[in-house]
Amino acid sequence: MSHNHSHGESCGDESHGHDHHGHDHGIPELQGHRDNLWSYIDRENTVVLNAESGKGSDVIKTWDARLDEEVFLESDADDQMIIRIPFTGSVKLRALLLKTGPTDQTPSKVALHSNVEHLDFSDIADRKPTQEFNVVQSRQIGEYHVMPAKFPNVTSITLFFPASQGADTIKIYYVGFLGSWTERKDAPVVAVYEAKPNLADHQKIQGMDGMTSAPQH
């Protein structure tokens, strides 16, 4: 069981955080790029509760910036934190990526709640998470593989960090996700409903033939 740490360290522990564009780092780098859902995260609407400063989007960094320690979230009143991260479509989640800490500022656990519109500290501790993990102390990226059957159609993920590993506060440097993305399942349904009242508008535009430009409808 002691070999678990060596697997995480093999993913570039000698890179010293410089990465050199990631082209010569082999398969671990490519895995991070290929399935990384960064471009499908709605960063503008990412929310963090109990952060001393900063926005939730501060830790939604690009893959190349994942080891950066200049920008982070640190908890405020205690060692708990909630981050709610919406996606721009439907996601089939495969793994959560985290960089936290260091040492006892590392969260003890992370609880993942899928597709919950609103959670706060008054009710999240009583709600059963979709899945949770013990967080490993590391200066590298921790990759936590979820059970895909529990996350087949995810539009938002709420992360709850319930406690530190001993410190008064926790620090989060990087949050990322691996998986696959598709457009929202409900989008075609909305389009069908919208098409019915728009039929008359289209006929008018055709009849006027060029006098009304398409962008107006």
TrEMBL record:
Lineage: Eukaryota, Fungi, Dikarya, Basidiomycota, Agaricomycotina
Chain intervals for the UniProt region annotation (Disordered): 1-29
Origin superkingdom: Eukaryota
Species of the source: Steccherinum ochraceum
Domain PITH: 26-197
Protein name: PITH domain-containing protein
Family classification: Belongs to the PITHD1 family.
Pfam family, one: PITH
Gene Ontology CC annotations of this record: cytoplasm; nucleus
